[in-house]
Amino acid sequence: MAETLILSGKTVSQNVYKSLQTRIDSLISSGCTPGLAVVLVGDNSASRIYVKSKAKRFDKMSLFSETFTLPDTVQEKEVLSLINDLNTDNRFHGILVQMPLPNHLNDSTIIEAVNPLKDVDGFHPENLGRLTAGHPRFVPCTPKGIMRILDYFKIDLSGKHVVVLGRSNIVGRPISILTSLKQSYSNATTTICHSGTTDIPYYTQQADILIAAIGAPEFVTSAHIKEGAVIIDVGINRVEDESEKGYSLVGDVHFESVNDKVSAITPVPGGVGPMTIAMLVENTIEAAERLVSV
Ligand SMILES: NC(=O)c1ccc[n+]([C@@H]2O[C@H](COP(=O)([O-])OP(=O)(O)OC[C@H]3O[C@@H](n4cnc5c(N)ncnc54)[C@H](OP(=O)(O)O)[C@@H]3O)[C@@H](O)[C@H]2O)c1
Fold it and tell me: Most buried residue, 1, 61, 215, 280, by CB count within 10 Å?
């Protein structure tokens, strides 16, 4: 069998950043610096790392971003009041509420408070509804990044069987919608599996393209897949080990076990991860272009 193609999200994201530069320059020269407001509640260490790397990337691209940090104990009405202010603050074209939120806050209430025209995460029901209807405005960043990887490496979805593991509103559900849209870039037959699926290997063994987004370290092994499948591993899981850091990052797929059997696979790290931030930048630029042209 031919050598396995490594689907590097690092390469694709660099390509995205390069292609966005003209749009950024044009916005800035017309007096508009695309701006992102990040709302970070509490002290989740992974969230802090994600938020920091988003801010760093915005800085590197000469874009504006500001992080609003609220304590773990914040009342819901204070979060809503901040979002309300950000909705009308012209410096910000995009608003992102970093998930997960502390348990006493209602995710839906907070997501629905964001102006859908600034919802660069694409989680607002209006944006998810538009995606479902086949007229997307903001597409959630991770699924959008997956589609971009498939497009970059010329992996055609039409007529293929895509199996998605996971049905979260952030990854599994939107990627299942995207892959099955009646569009030239899509048009797959998509099956979605979750914790209520009785025989997961039965489905995954039929997948031409398997997208794993369950948050279970190295769950998918050689026994789950068919020869020549394409694997998109969304999982980012911390596994304790003897290294200096005390942990390493692994995906939802056992890379070594499947590598010889598949035709292409995203690595972890360096696969889907870099695309999520690249798509956040792209969505913020889209938001700025839309708001400027109104
Ligand atoms: N690369 C990136 O940029 C990026 C972005 C987002 C997330 N992630 C990673 O992707 C993974 C998934 O994230 P998420 O936010 O979608 O997670 P999530 O909200 O926890 O959802 C996990 C989904 O997987 C299903 N599931 C969990 N364990 C399962 C099992 N053993 N068998 C079958 N289904 C199972 C759950 O089923 P139920 O619905 O039945 O509970 C749920 O639908 C995590 O590792 C996360 O860190 C990566």
Answer: 280
